[in-house]
Amino acid sequence: MAPPQDGEQLKKESILVVEDDLFLRNLLVKNLMNEGYDVWVAVDGPSALQTLEEKKPHLIILDLLLPGIDGYEVLSRIKKSTDLSKIPVIVLSNLVSPSDINKTLKLGAADYLTKATYTLEEVAERVKKVLNERYRKVG
C-alpha cells in the first residue's frame, strides 16, 4: 500500500489504541485524532483481539499491562495471525527493563516507548515514522 498520490482519494489512516488507563487513553485518542487519524480504542486484551477480528487498523499502540490478556500475549497473537501480522505495533508501556523491551521486539513490535519518557507529541512523531516505514516496505 503506497501513500496516496496527488489526485487520489486521501483515506484516513486508522490506529487502534489498546490502553486500560482512562486518562492516558483519552489523551492519546485526542492527540492522534488531532493529527488526522481515525482512532479506535480497546481497554483490555480480549477487547483488542475482538476489535481486530472486525477491523484492520494501519497501526496498533499497545500497552503491556492489561486486564484479561496481557499485551505480550496480544502482540504474540497479532504476529502469528496471517491477517494481522503486517500491522505495525508500537508498545507504549511503563515497563522499562531491558528484558521487557527485548521480549516485545523479539515478538515483532515495531517500536517500544516508555510512558514516562515520551510526550504525546513524540508518540505522534513515532507513529508517523513507523507508518512511513511501513509504506516504504509495502509500497
TrEMBL record:
One biological process term in Gene Ontology: phosphorelay signal transduction system
Gene3D superfamilies: 3.40.50.2300
CDD domains named in the record: REC_OmpR (cd17574)
Residue positions, PTM 4-aspartylphosphate: D63
Keyword S-adenosyl-L-methionine attributed: no
Domain spans labelled Response regulatory: 14-130
Pfam families cross-referenced by the UniProt entry: Response_reg
InterPro entries, sorted: Bact_response_regulator (IPR050595), CheY-like_superfamily (IPR011006), Sig_transdc_resp-reg_receiver (IPR001789)
Chain segments annotated as coiled-coil in the UniProt record: none
Keywords: Phosphoprotein
Spans through the membrane: none
PANTHER family found in the cross-reference section: RESPONSE REGULATORY DOMAIN-CONTAINING PROTEIN (PTHR44591:SF3), STRESS RESPONSE REGULATOR PROTEIN 1 (PTHR44591)
Name of the molecule in the record: Response regulatory domain-containing protein
Organism ancestry: Bacteria, Candidatus Sungiibacteriota
